[in-house]
């Protein structure tokens, strides 16, 4: 499959809307032709009606002008609607493509902040889609200029040649002037996206920042990043203003040359008074299409920069490769054999069908690495991870996650009701809510919203709701990472018993250092220094292993 590039993204955004773009270009071009005909008709009216003192002819030509105005008006309305529709639909398609790539089960090797991805899926997609509007306007402007050139050629070859030679020169100069804008527009979008991402992180972590007294440091950091974004925006604005101003000045000189040549021809008697009026009117009319072309250059420059950013997301390599293997997963036997990944070195671990296994990893990096492997966010450099005897590396990541649910420690909640959050992957949630100790949270919150990312709840309440959601999914294999670090000891003991009862006969792995949770497990595996150091029941390990005892009882 072809790797997306900025050029291909831009091209596809246009091709996907070619019907609306073609319709809008035709109608907008008809509008421009009508605009070009107006000064011509005025000149004809002067020569045939006013100069000849023919009132009837004047009425006829005024009627013709009215019909032309009506046609060009409706042509503009319908054409502009079709062009805007093409731009909006293209932007919508790009947003869907970006979101689909972000949600791809294979993951992404590139680490991008959520705010950056949001900016690419919104503002950059909008700018790429807007190229369809610019293309429609550019085609119409060229048709208008061409019509004016043809009319001027009929009036005078010299006038027509001035337009035919000068227009391509102006277009070339406008393209050259758009290059700095393209570079600075991309930098502007990158800085703005980064500032948005940092602001999102600061808002989501506001409670923690206040707790540790780091508000001033966070504000200083955001002020610096926001200042960088402002500087990039101002540089892009200066580049756009310089381009527009320069092109407008060049356009003014061009129009003045056309008017000067026409006036001289009229003075020498080579064209009539009506033709002079037509020539001057066309010269002034050309100011509009030429200004439109300058705007089109700016829009294409910004569109190319944004298309390159969209292409980077679409073309980013997957975290893991596809697999076509098949696994039932209902037994829930998990085996980790000789695995080396991240901080892990030659780790061995087996979970029997229906077993509740505890995993203690004093080094948080070991726990994170193990969770990534079990959820197939990554494949091990050495060794194998198996589900019911089938290597996870041979399965599609989506199939792995249908069978193995990894509930991360920092799971987010969605805006909305508490029960709605728990029932994301299930319909019967009452038992899961009780097992997770979240029934108290339901009683406190009721049917109200938990807020964006659950910010209306305390840390312990959010943790219990996230645990209830994981339990309600009733996965064949459930992997929990520190699910009770923010709850009190009494609630933790209740959750431990509820977890064991609810997951009876279903394979469960709890990566934790909580003695209450470890006490209800069937076995515990100790991973220390990136290796499997010991295996046994919780009580046995507490009695015989000093390092284990220090980790879980300190």
TrEMBL record:
Residue span, ABC transmembrane type-1 domain: 22-302
Positions of transmembrane segments: 21-46, 58-76, 130-151, 157-177, 247-267, 273-296
Membrane-topology annotation of the record: Multi-pass membrane protein
Keyword check for Nucleotide-binding: yes
Annotated source species: Actinomadura barringtoniae
Cited Pfam families: ABC_membrane (PF00664), ABC_tran (PF00005)
Secretion signal span: none
InterPro entries, per database record: ABC1_TM_dom, ABC1_TM_sf, ABC_transporter-like_ATP-bd, ABC_transporter-like_CS, P-loop_NTPase, Type_1_exporter
Alphabetic keyword roster: ATP-binding, Membrane, Nucleotide-binding, Transmembrane, Transmembrane helix
Any one Gene Ontology cellular component term annotated for this protein: plasma membrane
Name of protein: ABC transporter ATP-binding protein
GO molecular function terms listed in the Swiss-Prot or TrEMBL record: ABC-type oligopeptide transporter activity; ATP binding; ATP hydrolysis activity
Gene3D superfamilies: ABC transporter type 1, transmembrane domain, P-loop containing nucleotide triphosphate hydrolases
Subcellular location: Cell membrane
Boundaries of every ABC transporter domain copy: 321-554
PANTHER family the record matches: ATP-BINDING CASSETTE SUB-FAMILY B MEMBER 10, MITOCHONDRIAL (PTHR43394:SF1), ATP-DEPENDENT PERMEASE MDL1, MITOCHONDRIAL (PTHR43394)
Key word Transmembrane helix present: yes
